[in-house]
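Protocol step 4 of 6: structure prediction from sequence.
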Amino acid sequence: MDLDQAISRRRMCRNFLERPVPPETLDRLLAAATRAPSAGNTQGWAFLVLEGDDRDRFWSQQADTAWLEHPSHPGLLRAPVLVVPLASRDRYAERYSEPDKATVGPGRVEQWHVPYWLVDAAFATMLLLLEVTQEGLGALFFALRRDPAPLLHELGAPPSWEALGAVAIGWPSPDDRPTPSAARPRRPVAELVHRGRW
């Protein structure tokens, strides 16, 4: 599958088979994601990969009764792998105080109009989603329902790292169906692209 095909086929999957993802496949997915662009080549992202008991611990802390009652969520719970993308503001503060960036960079991170640590982690997460599609797997990026700090602490993540959400990864079930949101038409390119001025 080429890049254009992966882009056009990529969609969120909410119903997974109870089938493990081979370790070498997961390694390829994660390696591809680390090739994302990064301000100052800081690479201030990390992926917390949860399988087995760690995955179960995640669900016990993040899924409440109301969430579990949603019709699509039992299929989501079968995803064998969860990846929590993390970003570190501190890494960017350190990088942009180094000599090659201190005078040409955008100044202290407190002055940045855009939190590039989140942008870069989102780039890496998008590469992960595209690579999942390329491998014939399914994935769902979803928001965390509860404060992830206790779970991250329990799993040994440094306190300066923040979670963007989570990505469920696995083999799509044949009866996985797009949500009603997927039926919304894509806006035409002419409506989204403004050349020279709005």
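Step 5 (inspection) to follow. The chain is about 40% helix and 15% strand.
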